[in-house]
Write a structure and sequence with these properties.
Distance between the termini of chain B: 5 Å
Largest sheet of chain B: none
CATH topology of chain B: Formate dehydrogenase/DMSO reductase fold
Number of strands of chain B: 0
Radius of gyration of chain A: 18 Å
Order of helices and strands of chain A: EHHEEHEEHEEHHEHEE
Oligomer: heterodimer
Largest interface: A-B, 46 and 45 residues
CATH superfamily of chain B: Formate dehydrogenase/DMSO reductase domain
Shape of chain A: globular
Number of domains of chain A: 1
Low-confidence stretches of chain A: none
CATH architecture of chain A: 2-Layer Sandwich
Mean pLDDT of chain B: 88
Number of helices of chain B: 18
CATH class of chain B: Mainly Alpha
Low-confidence stretches of chain B: 441-457
Number of strands of chain A: 10
Strand content of chain B: under 5%
CATH architecture of chain B: Up-down Bundle
Radius of gyration of chain B: 23 Å
Helix content of chain B: 55-70%
Structural class of chain A: alpha+beta
Largest sheet of chain A: 4 strands, mixed
Strand order of the largest sheet of chain A: 8-1-10-9
Strand content of chain A: 15-25%
Order of helices and strands of chain B: HHHHHHHHHHHHHHHHHH
Helix content of chain A: 10-25%
Number of helices of chain A: 7
Chain lengths: ~230, ~450
């Protein structure tokens, strides 16, 4: 079994949000509009956090894409009363939509605040409804959801590899965000395979993990030349 | 004391306590109609929320819990008080407890029933709530016993069952008493509920024994109940939730607000049913002193909680701290201090103001203050998650306010109906208390070990 992980090079990230758009298209995320967004109900599985450093004119923007960190010790998992969020055999932090009853405890206990709740049922205006991804189920109101590392793509690659009697090749699985990143700031792969691109990058001296001090053991590794100061 | 109660004849007592069950005034129907209308309005708001989605409430990301959970803790808090206070008074043989126990126990049952609705009201998919129940099923799916929410579910149900039995059992002799004094359908109704109680010495002996066992057992159940509610928060990895003192802090807060609501209920019952001879100033005085003690206990816990957070000065913790103490929630925080301490303490500390009215004012103030405390705990922490980018705000919508009003009205309605159908003062226990007081000069009555506080004799 692979140990899936993602490496995000902050020194390459321009904050263009292509990953956010790609994620919306791949995972059937609704567009909730300005009003709902203002209420803090943006429906994004990945977001670009932007922080300003210094005062004008010596000002710099810093970006960090934040998505579900797929923690090995995920604080969201033990608090769910119905096992709707659990650790699957591949080490992914999975969300079973059908099982979720909507207590929202997982979202509260996520230190990264990356879980997204369906406050309403969603509609896709024509012709947007025709581009919905058939590999991803539509979630209804009252359910929690979050980044899955594009588990449907992992599944497909696994079936393909099994049919051909081989292991999944490095780079064969690419979540939508990784695939769409114009500066190749994001790399996805098996962290247990020392030769994978992700593993090689993860060994960088620039590597760190978000809120590492909490002991959540995230599977997302960030790279940054200077120290990333948590605001 | 004892003068007023002593002058009551048994017949007068029966008359006083049974009459309200039979005669119904216009005022009663009016109160029920008004409360019922508010309940229906709340129900409609809830139906709207279920059909449309949780988005009609003000909750958002990161404030995923709001008024519903705050009110949930509040109701579970006041529920803790009734049975716990009654059990502690029984176990300590407090000589003045007799007219107080039943109105306290009834608060517990109804507050639990209403409080227990909130976790369901706040569920995103309430139609699947039964997945919280560990029932055997063909798919082999069980709830997650590691989740505090499952502990909650079990604790609420255990406590509800326990406090229901604790309310019902001591009521049997009274139900039989009424059965023997009314006619028609009432006779059948109370006869059915009295479970054939005939008052033989064996029955009395077993009843006393059962009550004393229940009183002992119910205390750990009540304490664990509110501790579990506290652990809903303190097991979470959140700034200003992840605190070891939360369980005792919640239990103290629960007793605090519980005594307050008990006093409010007593004042109203006293007025409405003309029970001045039963609920005497001594009861308000004693409960007032108990409440005063809890004002200080509450301040102590709150101070300990905030001092350590402030002194440690961890950035994540301080964000929540500042949000509460000097940020947008500051009016709530300082309002809480005012309502829970500054207002009630002088009223309760001075004998001159520790009157029935004084106790009512202090109690109402504390009820508001404790609701604010629950709100601060829930909203304060959630508005300030660890990553600054995700910080947020929360304000309840009309749906949340309507449901809050509806449930409060429902609680009062249940209590009104209960006091209309059942004697709100335990007749046999009151008689027993009076008898024991009368026997006191004989000297060998251990039940009188605890005299009321001497100041008001």
């Amino acid at each position: 079994m692979a140990k899936w992980g993602m490496v995000i090079d902050l020194d390459r990230c321009t904050g263009c949000e292509a990953c956010v758009i790609a994620c919306h298209a791949e995972n059937n995320l609704p567009i909730v509009g300005e009003e709902e967004s203002a209420k803090g109900r943006q429906h994004n599985w990945i977001r670009i956090e932007r922080y300003w450093e210094g005062e004008y004119p010596h000002i710099r923007a810093r970006f960090i894409p934040v998505l579900c960190q797929q923690c090995d010790h995920a604080p969201c998992e033990p608090v769910c009363p119905v096992y709707a969020t659990y650790h699957n055999p591949e080490g992914l932090n999975a969300q079973v939509y059908n099982r979720c009853i909507g207590t929202r405890f997982c979202a509260n206990n996520c230190p990264y605040t990356v879980r997204v709740f369906n406050w309403f049922d969603h509609q896709w205006e024509r012709p947007l409804d025709e581009q919905l991804n058939p590999d991803v189920s539509i979630r209804t109101r009252g359910m929690m959801e979050k980044c899955t590392f594009c588990v449907q793509r992992i599944r497909r690659a696994r079936h393909q590899a099994e049919d051909e009697g081989r292991d999944i090749r490095d780079g064969e699985v690419q979540p939508a965000c990784v695939q769409s990143c114009p500066t190749e700031a994001m790399v996805f792969g098996d962290l247990d395979d020392p030769d994978s691109r992700a593993s090689q990058r993860a060994r960088s001296r620039r590597a760190f993990r978000l809120l590492e001090e909490l002991g959540t053991e995230p599977s997302v590794i960030y790279l940054k030349e200077d120290e990333w100061v948590e605001p | 004391m004892g003068d007023k109660a002593g002058s009551l004849t048994t017949n007068m007592m029966h008359e006083d306590l049974i009459r309200p069950l039979i005669l119904t005034g216009r005022r009663f129907y009016l109160v029920v109609a008004v409360l019922g209308a508010i309940v229906l309005w709340g129900l409609a708001a809830w139906g709207y929320q279920v059909r449309t989605g949780m988005g009609v409430a003000g909750i958002n990301s990161p404030v995923f819990w709001g008024v519903y959970i705050a009110t949930y803790i509040f109701f579970i808090g006041i529920s803790n008080a009734g049975t716990l206070i009654s059990a502690m008074l029984r176990l300590s043989h407090a000589g003045w407890r007799h007219p107080v126990t039943r109105c306290a126990e009834a608060i517990t049952v109804f507050a639990l029933m209403v409080g227990g609705m909130f976790p369901l009201i706040h569920l995103g998919r309430v139609w699947k709530f039964y997945w919280l129940i560990p029932y055997p099923n063909e798919r082999g799916l069980w709830p997650n016993f590691h989740s505090p929410l499952v502990w909650d579910f079990m604790a609420i149900n255990t406590y509800l069952l326990g406090s229901f039995v604790y309310l019902y059992l001591p009521m049997l002799p009274d139900l039989a008493l009424i059965r023997d004094r009314v006619a028609g359908w009432r006779r059948r109704f109370y006869g059915l509920l009295a479970l054939g109680w005939s008052g033989t010495p064996v029955e009395w002996h077993r009843l006393e024994k059962a009550i004393s066992i229940l009183a002992v057992v119910i205390i750990p159940v009540a304490v664990s109940m509110h501790s579990v509610v506290a652990w809903d928060f303190s097991v979470a990895l959140k700034p200003m939730w992840h605190s070891t003192i939360f369980a005792p802090y919640f239990v103290v807060g629960a007793l605090f607000s519980g005594i307050a609501i008990l006093m409010v209920a007593m004042v109203i019952l006293r007025r409405v049913f003309h029970l001045e001879a039963y609920l005497e100033p001594i009861h308000f005085n004693n409960l007032g002193l108990l409440l005063l003690t809890f004002c200080f206990l509450w301040l102590y816990f709150t101070f300990a909680e905030y001092l350590v957070t402030w002194y440690g000065h961890l950035p994540d913790e301080m964000a929540a701290f500042r949000f509460k103490v000097e940020g947008p929630l500051a009016p709530f925080f300082w309002g809480m201090v005012l309502m829970n301490f500054v207002i009630p303490v002088p009223i309760l500390a001075m004998r001159k103001t520790r009157t029935v009215t004084g106790c009512l004012v202090a109690s109402l103030s504390i009820l508001v203050g404790m609701w604010l405390e629950r709100y601060l705990i829930v909203v304060g922490t959630l508005s300030r998650p660890r990553l600054e980018f995700a910080w947020g705000h929360y304000a309840p919508t009309w749906v949340e306010i309507s449901i809050l009003m509806g449930t409060v009205a429902y609680f009062i309605l249940l209590y009104v109906l209960f006091s209309k159908i059942f004697p709100i003062i335990s007749i046999w226990e009151f008689k027993q208390g009076r008898r024991l007081r009368a026997q006191k000069p004989a000297g060998d009555v251990p039940v009188m070990a605890n005299e009321p506080f001497p100041g008001v004799m």
